[in-house]
Amino acid sequence: MIWNAEGPFLADVSFLLDAPAGKHGFVKVVNGRFADGDGKRLRFWGVNFSFNASFPEKKDAPAVAAHLARFGVNCVRIHHHDWRSPRGLIDGSKPDSRRLDAEMLDRLDYLVSELKKRGIYVDLNLNVARAFQDADGVKDAGVLGFAKAVTQFDPRMIELQKEFAQAYLTHRNPYTGNEYRNEPAVAIVEIVNENSLIEYWARGRLQGGGPKPGQDPTWRDIPDSYAKDLDRLYQEYLSKAMAADAAAIRKEAGVAEGQAVPRLGPAQFKEASALRFRTEAGFYIALEDKFYQAMAAYLKNELKVRAPVIANSVHASTFTPYPLSSIISKLDAVDTHVYWQHPSYTRDANGKTTAFKIQNTPMVNEPERSTVVTLHRSAVLGKPFTVSEVNHPYPNEYAAEMIPVLASYAAFLDWDGIFWYSFEHSAASNWTSRYPGHFDIRQDAVKMSQLAAGALVFLRGDVGVSRKTVTRTIAREDMVESLRKPSSAAPLFTEGAAPGALLRDDVRIASFDARKTSRLPNAKPPYRTNTREIEWSVRKGKGVVAVSSARYEAAAGFIKENAVRLKHLNPTLDNAFASLMLVSLDGKRVSESAKLLLTTGARTGNTGMTWNADRTSLTANGTGPMLIEPVTGSIRLSNMGRASRVEIVPLDGAGRAMGPFATAEKILDGFRVRLGEHITPWYLIQVWR
Questions:
Q1: Quick count: other Cβ atoms within 10 Å of Cβ 108?
Q2: Both 451 and 533 in a single domain?
Q3: Separation in Å, CA 526 to CA 223, 374, 500, 505, 523
Q4: Which residues are paired to 310 by β-bridges?
Q5: What is the DSSP letter of 589?
């Protein structure tokens, strides 16, 4: 993939972007959807920039922004940028974490200005991975790691978060002339990232003791000093908010009046009474809610931030979403993160990763547990719904299914934004042609070509929105009790909930405090959307998702075994597993279009990459360049109106023509396009009539 190329670009979809970003005023929420200043609906097709990706050298920033625009990206989530310089925005030369690095801030400012020029908004994160220091006046700073959970109740850390927000959001970008709080190209401001008291309690990380040997440095147990602070806050909660029930809880805990009631750990959840369990859960819910409300009030009322504010993200596929969803839905939007088969890691005593493992199976075989269902289970009626992190992490051999499936359902379910995690972790000057880790998509030819096609599908609305919205309600006691349900209760964690219903209709939560939890209508495979444009079927254990709309057709999965036949796109492939996306470039129906974009996807991998015996990990990561498994065989283009000739133009890593061109074979019911003669995942199809 060539990020700094010169044109002409035949696959350029930057016409989808309305430049400059914010030209119609500030992003706002209108009738539960994101809209621009004129009230026109906005959807965000985004990527994440992590670490140094947000700080390119100035000479590279224009090309980076232009590259994103060509692929239809209209929003960048500025993420994991609160590290110490030179890896992040915080001045690493100082003993505290309270000052911004002038050079890094200047680089970010210039990048934002270049993005804005091309119609690309930014999503600014406030607290992701900040390393608090002793000089900040923070106790036990050396063992806090990212200080997850503690940031939500420790007064000093809350004060420091407000201070960072003030310094960052009131900073005037000299290249746009605006402070970030008053910048119309800022689409979203996020308070924290994957940081929840409720989750930390349910996962046993609030008992104290600090980091354990071999523990993930991101998800550390909190130190004893902060566990004692929580103990004190819990006793105050019992004596005030729950005074009427305190005696019964003390009796169950076996402590006398005046003694502290010990907080529960996960090993005690099963035996705890409903009263004791729900009381303690209510304490964490109230404390986390208080934090978001106070931060949102500070951002909006004191700093006068104009952009919508998101509290946090529902972020674990095998963990109940509802307690956190109930809190974050009180702010401007609901956000989610999910990965299909996120790698699990083996670590040494110091927490350093030594190995990883993935399941490496296709999502199309498990529709009920898919990322589509796991994400959309948190959608709330009347609130914008965004997905700010999602991926099929490398080296999953079925990742070619991700964008065709998610782009199609995101359009059908009417999501307000989807951000792939991530585009890159490094500054542009260090971009290479190999996969450096599990998450970057920038160098993946299949995912990137699909990114451009998916932008057309999602931003233009080439898949129709659900014809009806089914509302579901959740009783508060069920919401709380879901915290002690096993991971086997995923994805929906409620009785009588049919996950397949979320693949048929737009299902949204109307209440987290209902009299009873509602049952979802039953749904059985194959799952067809109520618009009849998407069908997810599994035959003999092999799945496929097929999409057919006026401007777009696609198939992803075991296409050959399922004998996929669509109105226009009829494949005969050699590959066991593959994906195809055929989308109109000129906005006309496929049958009338003069220019179509065709993407083909199968496996990708580094040169020299080798698998272990059961294909769940790598014994060698390999080097650049990345390789693709070419999709070979042919497709038949049918029902193409009065088409007289079809020409196929293979495209290079920048979306430019590479020869030789080929003319499709005219056959009785259309045209046959042969695949695999050029080693590329995407083609321009030109049609003459």
A1: 27
A2: no
A3: 50, 18, 9, 14, 9
A4: 190
A5: -
Helix (H) or strand (E) holding 339: strand 334-339
In this structure, the answer to whether residues 547 and 446 fall within a common structural domain is: no
Using an 8 Å Cβ cutoff, are 583 and 462 in contact? yes
Provide the residue range defining the domain that includes 606. Answer: 527-688
Report the alpha-carbon distance of residue 415 to residue 33 in Å, rounded: 9
**Amino acid letter, residue 585:** L
Say if residue 320 is in the same domain as residue 456.
Answer: yes
Whether the Cβ atoms of residue 383 and residue 333 lie closer than 8 Å to each other: yes
| Domains contained in the chain, number | 2
Q: Angle of helix 274-297 relative to helix 155-169, nearest 10 degrees?
A: 30
What is the pTM (predicted TM-score) of this model?
0.97
CA 464 to chain centre: 22
* pLDDT averaged per 10 residues, the chain (length 689): 95 98 98 97 98 98 98 98 97 98 98 98 98 97 96 98 98 98 98 97 95 86 97 96 91 93 97 97 98 98 98 95 98 98 91 92 98 98 98 98 98 98 96 92 97 98 97 97 95 89 97 95 93 97 98 97 95 97 98 98 97 97 96 97 95 93 92 94 96
Residue 298 DSSP symbol:
I
314 and 426 together in one domain: yes
User: Which amino acid, one-letter code, is at 573?
Assistant: L
Identify how many contiguous H helices and E strands the chain contains and give both numbers: 14, 32
